Amino acid sequence: MDIMGDGARLLNARRAHGPHTRRTGGPAGVPPSHPAPTTTQLLPGPRTRTQGRPGTGLPPEVPGLPLEDELAAREEIELSAREARLRRSAETGDPAAASVLGTLLLRRGDLDDAETHLRNATAAGDRAAANNLGVLLHQRGLTEEAAGWWRVAAVAGSASAAHALGRHFREKGDEPAAEYWLRQAAESGHTLGAYALADLLEHRRDVGAERWFLAAAEHGHREAAYRLARILENRAADEGRPREQSAETWYRQAAARGHRRAALRLGMLLEERGETDEAMRWYLNAAREGEARAACALGFLLRDAGDPDGAAVWWRRAAEDGDGNAANALGAQHAERGETDAAERWYRRALDAGDVNGAFNLGLLCSAGGRTAQAEQWYRRAAYAGHREAGNALAVLLLQQGDPAGAEPWFSKAAEAGSVDAAFNLGILHASRKEEAEARRWYEHAAAAGHAEAALQVGIALLREGDTHTAERHLRCAAGGGSAEGAFRLAALLGRQEDRQEEAEEWYEQAARHGHRRAQVRMGMYAARRGDFDDAAHWYRTAAEAGSTNGAFNLGLLSARRGDDAEAAVWWTRAAEAGHGRAALRLALLAARGGELAEAQAWCARAVELGPAEVAERAARLRDALRQELSA
């Protein structure tokens, strides 16, 4: 409760140096209007040291005495002198002196002596004394008597007393009376009264709360500024509008006054729009004040900035303060380094903090280590707690163990909870049973949520149905989502149209750079068509070395065109041995030209075996001609 009296500034300075610092700002649960001053702010500027000055009543300076201690001693002497003067005035019946003296003693904690002087001042009609007597009685647990004196002071116009009385009635559950007195305080310009009224109104979902949060925030109340910002931000989100700039403004005001959650939220807003340097500064401010979520967020920014060790420091601090997300991040960091024991400890710490991701990550860790039974236990624990990706992982594990009947319910549950991977896996499961309609339904469900491979499957189905327009849309989604096969099939579809060859080549290149062998061969063909045989050789070689028989065959053609039959034979042999009929026929022709008729016959036989029909027919004719040549 507020203590009224003009001795507050000196007393604050004294308490900054005294052995029994205690908070006397606002009521319990209500932060002060301004951040507490630091010791440095409380101290006056530096003074020139002397060996004592005549007439000051101060002892000479003790050599080596710290300036702060000297000032504290000086203030103690000044305070004692002031108290003595007040006592003399109070003893002569001065109610104002009795009121100030009672306030001074109340702040010091000398309740008995304070009560005597406050009652004397109150009896003489001192309003501040009535309020402070209420504060004293409230501290002693005499709440009803305290309320009586607050009422006396409030009726006489004390905003502080009206605020205290309003809080008293709210604690008793009498909200109408609480609102009346808090409104009296707020309308008198009392900052804490405005905040307490706003808090009461917001609790009742009364839109009038915003007005009083604003009033308190404009007078520097940091919690009011924070809650006003939350109201503005949430309203914009509910209405589907962009976030109001004023919300950020109030977050800044609260954060600048030391509000940890405001600094955290401000950091999040800045990070969302890519201003990571400033976001990091606000996260750091909040983290230093003990906000675990800010320490965790700071860790992620440091990790992304290439400072994993710095990230670990803040994650550890956050995890030790009970942040499960930070504990999971530490676990993942250790897991990436192969430190499975440390990873497991942190995942367990995350789980102990109530973060179900800890159980899921323990499942992943056990699965990677071949501990399937333990992995299943952890997946089940997380899945039963509602972790959708754990449900999907559990279903995959059951499917791998040959239990599709056990897997399907978990796939369904996870998919219905929003797991896109589970929806895609359900599609695969139904497709394996030839249940095309159900498979298509789940593929479309996953594709609508942005799953690239699901979009690919829908696109392929539409191509089979001849709906090239809709197929193109899905293939674009697949290709844009990183599917190399999606990019290849989109390129093939576009390549059917003469006026879209350039775009087709772009998609072939994207697929090729993602390792798609058929796309790499296509890129080689585009390059060869342009006469860029070096680029063509690059793409054919890339495809061939990745196992593409067409890549090896075409690279052989390029080598032969350059007159390097030996190089051509190497690539054709690789292709033919992997089942490429045309390569076998080329080797037969090459051997025949070189007079190796028996070898040529062997490659002809291989070409006939491999096909296709046109190649088999040509190889058979060549084989017959070679037989005649050999028998001649």
Structural class: mainly alpha
Strand content: under 5%
What would you call the shape?
elongated
Helix content estimate: over 70%
The profile of the biggest β sheet is: none
Word description of this protein:
There is one protein chain. The protein has 632 residues and is mostly helical. The protein has a domain at 579-631. It contains 36 helices and no strands. The protein has helices at 8-17, 39-42, 67-91, 95-108, 111-123, 127-139, 143-155, 159-172, 175-187, 191-203, 209-218, 222-238, 245-256, 260-272, 276-288, 292-304, 308-320, 324-336, 340-352, 357-368, 372-384, 388-400, 404-416, 420-432, 436-448, 452-465, 468-480, 484-494, 501-513, 517-530, 533-545, 549-561, 565-577, 581-593, 597-610, 613-631. Helix 6 (127-139) packs antiparallel against helix 7 (143-155), helix 31 (533-545) runs antiparallel to helix 32 (549-561) and helix 32 runs antiparallel to helix 33. The longest helix has 25 residues, at 67-91. The protein is elongated, with a radius of gyration of 41 Å. The termini are far apart. The relative contact order is 0.03.
